[in-house]
Design brief:
This is 2-hydroxyacid dehydrogenase. It is built from 13 helices and 12 strands. The protein is of the alpha/beta class and 325 residues long. The chain has a 7-stranded parallel beta sheet, sandwiched between helices. A 5-stranded parallel beta sheet has the order 2-1-3-4-5. Helix 4 links the parallel strand 4 and strand 5. The protein starts with 6 loop residues before the first strand and ends in a 10-residue tail after the last helix. Bound molecules: NADP nicotinamide-adenine-dinucleotide phosphate.
Length: 325
């Protein structure tokens, strides 16, 4: 197959530079309206396109992929997380899957720090108060938050984004770093970040002033932080999540925020986006962002070009640089 004839579906709008790069090279269908595609449309696309470039907003399950041979041979995902794709079903149907690791690490670590700072310093509450006309002026006890310097940040998962967050928190904000992860980081990485690995999640939760989640989503990490884990956290600790919504039991989180067991939380991701758990919406001490982790112009362009690099490799029959299935 020549590269020009490869049929590619991009399911959502991409930054113009990345869309342009693909349309110059392949027969590309773009989604100019940027409307989420229905499951029926996605299922149909498997018979119409050689390559589909989905995002986290496309749930690609076994029913959509189907068992019969389909035209689509590659899902070049725009994003590093891939829990929205049924990887086993892709393997069974001989559909390769790639993601975009690395290019969004700094942007997402920046956002984790933003959530940590916003939650600790109560800046969301402050802005709401000011805009509502409720600010009555400076006073010594007004909206006192918590300092980060000298406090302990516990990272759950210690891959690319967690380590970049550790770098910012340790070298920029003077925080001590603990981590809990499936595998240990190299000793020089631990030394460079002043990071200590905890043997159990419970130990990390017990010792951290701020806990930030960085594991992938999916069955293995579903409700990893529930009522029992929150009860193990320090009284008044802060919980931040830029990983995936399913990692937290949000009813347990809302109860802990209401009772003051946790002083604050900062969330970028939710179990059934774009729905935000109603129990959280009325709480002042939770920062709620609309999944902005990688949302910078530079990062989103780089993500598109990284997905395109995988399409290029597929077109030329080369090994896929970011193959996950
Ligand atoms: P990564 O480099 O693969 O890091 C994942 C880390 O989690 C690894 O240290 C991994 O350990 C560990 N881990 C996996 N399963 C675990 C388990 N069951 N228990 C304990 N540790 C476990 O991935 P990344 O690039 O840092 O991205 C992390 C996640 O962030 C992505 O999967 C994605 O869902 C999310 N994300 C969100 C945004 C956003 O917009 N908010 C943006 C980018 C990414 P091993 O080394 O043993 O595998």
């Amino acid at each position: 197959m020549t590269a020009k004839r490869l049929r590619v579906l991009v399911t959502r709008r991409w930054p113009e530079a990345a869309e342009h790069y693909l349309t110059e090279r392949y027969e590309v269908t773009l989604n100019a309206e940027d409307a989420p595609m229905s499951p029926a449309r996605l299922a149909q696309a498997f018979d119409e396109y050689d390559v589909i470039c989905p995002t986290v907003s496309d749930k690609i399950d076994a029913d959509i992929i189907g068992a019969a041979p389909r035209l689509t041979r590659l899902l070049a995902n725009f994003g590093v997380g891939f829990d929205h794709i049924d990887i086993a079903a892709c393997k069974a149907a001989n559909v390769a899957v790639t993601n975009t690791p690395g290019v969004l690490t700094d942007a997402t670590a920046d956002l984790a720090m933003a959530l940590i700072l916003t939650a600790a310093r109560r800046t969301g509450e402050g802005e709401r108060e000011l805009r509502d006309g409720r600010w009555s002026g400076w006073r010594p006890t007004h909206l006192m938050g918590r300092s980060l310097s000298g406090k302990t940040l516990g990272l759950v998962g210690f891959g690319r984004i967690a380590q970049a967050t550790a770098h910012r928190a340790h070298h920029g904000f003077g925080m001590n770093i603990l981590y809990y992860s499936r595998s240990a980081a190299a000793p020089d990485v631990e030394r460079g970040l002043g990071a200590n690995r905890m043997a159990t999640l419970e130990e990390l939760l017990r010792r951290s002033d701020v806990v930030s989640l960085h594991v992938p989503g999916g069955a293995e990490t579903s409700n990893m932080i529930g009522a029992k884990e929150i009860a193990a956290m320090k009284p008044g600790a802060i919980l931040v999540n830029t990983a995936r919504g399913g990692v937290i039991d949000h009813d347990a989180l809302a109860a802990a925020l209401k009772s003051g067991a946790l002083s604050a939380a900062g969330l970028d991701v939710y179990p059934a986006e774009p729905v935000v758990p109603a129990s959280l919406l009325g709480l002042e001490n939770v920062v709620l962002l609309p999944h902005l982790g990688s949302a910078t112009v530079e990062t989103r362009e780089a993500m598109g070009l990284r997905a395109a690099a995988n399409v290029n490799a597929f077109a030329s029959g080369s090994p896929l640089p970011d193959r996950i299935a």
